[in-house]
Design a protein that fits this description.
By secondary structure, this protein is an alpha+beta fold. Helices cover 34% and strands 25% of the residues. It contains 4 helices and 8 strands. The strands form 2 sheets. A 5-stranded mixed β-sheet has the order 2-8-7-4-5. The chain has a 3-stranded antiparallel β-sheet with strand order 1-3-6, with no helix packed on it. β7 and β8 form a beta hairpin. α1 packs antiparallel against α2. The protein is elongated. The two termini are 45 Å apart.
Length: 235
Amino acid sequence: MPRLETFIYIGLTLGAVYYLRAFLRAQRQLSGTVFGLEREAVYAQRGVALSMLLVIVFFASALYVFLNIVMPALAPDIGNRPRPTPAFAVTLVSSPGPVLAPARTLSPDQLTSIKLGTPLPTATEAIPSGIGCPNPQVTITAPVAGAAVAGPVEVKGTASIPDFAFYKFELNGPGTEGNWRTLFTASAPVSDGVLGNWDASIYAPGSYLFRLVVYDAAGHTPAPCVIPITIVAIP
């Protein structure tokens, strides 16, 4: 999409230059034209050139507004659909849960002798499904997973897929009522650089999921990059 946009702007620029020269040429001819019919023909040429200039300017303005304002706003918000798994198993680490059994120390032999209906979750299974960055073209390198953030947050990483259209940051946690909330949107691809900034101070402290979503020109998106973070209050 960016390459096609560039070619369109080049074509519009060449057209604008052509009709601007035609307009100026007709303007010069008017000063040296005496006969009525000839002046009418020159007036017509000048009117056509001016009309085409206005059409080109209007089309270029409409194209810019569509690609940079309308298209990002109308892209499907895939992140607002509910996930099949809970988004906040990570909050169990920082928030005390209900006591399920009396506090008691068991020996390894006693632990192995207990037969459970389902296996105990491992440390890997405690992480909600969907967390991670499976696509190297959609990655977050800063902040890192599990980081504590406060105030202005600079996000670094990569957002560059074939037929790129735009990308956005989203946040899900206590301060967003459990929904994915868009924090930042940009329409230029980035490779291993600064993706943008957002302000963590406007959200309640707690455990959140933060993700990077990249869209192509058709409105499709590969697997997003999702990391857990903790927003802390500024002292």
